[in-house]
Amino acid sequence: MDAHKYSRFIRLAGVQDEGFEKVRNARIVLVGIGTLGGAYALNLVRIGTGFIRLVDRDIVEEHNLSTQLLYDMYDVQHPLPKVTAAKNRLNAINQDCEIEACPSELRQDNAEELLGGVDLIIDATDNFETRFLINDVAVKLNIPWIYTGVVGYTGVCMAIIPGVTACLRCMMERVPDTGELPTCETAGVWAAAAQTITAVGLTEALRIITDGKPEFGLSELDIQAGTWKKVHPEWSGDCPVCVHHEYSYLSGKTVSQSVKLCGREMVHISPGRQQNLNLPGMADLLPADYECTCTEDLLHIKLPEAEIYLFKDGRSFVKGVSDTERAKSIFNRYISV
Ligand SMILES: [Zn+2]
């Protein structure tokens, strides 16, 4: 390996030969290889990170290209799973890094296997269901992880070190209510906001890997408003995960969504707990060009690929698809979970 290739990186204070050796030996898993994951991967591979595992279930689609830096029209036309297209691109940039492509959805039954055997887990996903699962596994296996999120012009990032910092459950008791938050599908996503917030996550990653001085805390960025806040969430003395070691999202005790086919081309999605949604409020947040009708009890959204019926108690039907995974994917893209 040609160390000269990395000379500008090695020269950094806090890196030097010793830090670079740690980066070369580092094993990282990236969950999600879209807008955030691409920005993470492109940087990690260029500094010679030893091993990167990519976990993502999607294929490359044309609408990804406006925000996802890893892909091009070749990947859309073939079409390739995102992890395969990403591996090809990353290998072309730097063959010093070993890339493992896992075209899988992160679930309870495979989470420990996919997230295990690494020094750091990076969350580059778009939903809290997956993040709570990552939090359970990371605390159980004692692996640091970096929470990252982006929507619209805003981004959040926090390094979570089991036993050292607050964990996600210390900050949030449970997955937010259905539709409580905007999604990238409904609010859009500004790629530069994703790249800026991943710069925070990458710097935290470098600190963790090189045992540098911690600068932990939750960063909240609004690039349009020009604001950048840093808060330090308190460790909850009664956290079910990092204090009591109850991993309910991993064990399946807490189910945030159950999905079943009910008739031809109709899928029922249950939120796992009774909710009391403000449907008119949610309808107001949808883009004006969406075809939807709404009462206090039912929100109906007509999409090109399916229709979504969402009830006040959080239950919903996706009409027009007969595949439960596809129904869940459509629902989660438009309604946050
Ligand atoms: Zn905790």
Write the layout of secondary structure elements.
Blueprint: H1 7-10, H2 16-25, E1 27-31, H3 35-46, E2 51-55, H4 73-77, H5 82-93, E3 98-102, H6 111-115, E4 120-123, H7 128-141, E5 145-151, E6 154-160, H8 168-171, H9 184-187, H10 191-210, E7 218-222, E8 227-231, H11 248-251, E9 258-261, E10 266-270, H12 279-285, E11 291-294, E12 298-302, E13 307-311, E14 316-319, H13 324-334
Parallel strand pairs: 1-2, 1-4, 2-3, 4-5
Antiparallel strand pairs: 5-6, 6-7, 7-8, 9-10, 10-14, 11-12, 12-13, 13-14
Helix pairs in contact: 3-5, 3-10
Write a compact overview of the structure shown:
The protein is of the alpha/beta class and 337 residues long.
What does this structure look like?
The protein has 337 residues and is of the alpha/beta class. The chain folds into two domains: 3-251, Rossmann fold (3-Layer(aba) Sandwich); 258-334, TATA-Binding Protein. Helices cover 33% and strands 21% of the residues. The protein has 13 helices and 14 strands. An eight-stranded mixed β-sheet has the order 3-2-1-4-5-6-7-8, sandwiched between helices. Helix 3 packs parallel to helix 5 and helix 3 (35-46) packs across helix 10. The protein is globular, with a radius of gyration of 20 Å. The structure holds zinc ion (ZN).
Identify the quaternary structure here.
single chain
CATH architecture of the largest domain: 3-Layer(aba) Sandwich
Q: Compute the separation of the termini in Å.
A: 44 Å
Averaged pLDDT: 91
Largest sheet descriptor: 8 strands, mixed
Named once each, the bound ligands are: zinc ion
- CATH-defined topology of the largest domain: Rossmann fold
CATH homologous superfamily designation of the largest domain: NAD(P)-binding Rossmann-like Domain
CATH class of the largest domain: Alpha Beta
Kindly give the count of domains.
2
Order of helices and strands: HHEHEHHEHEHEEHHHEEHEEHEEEEH
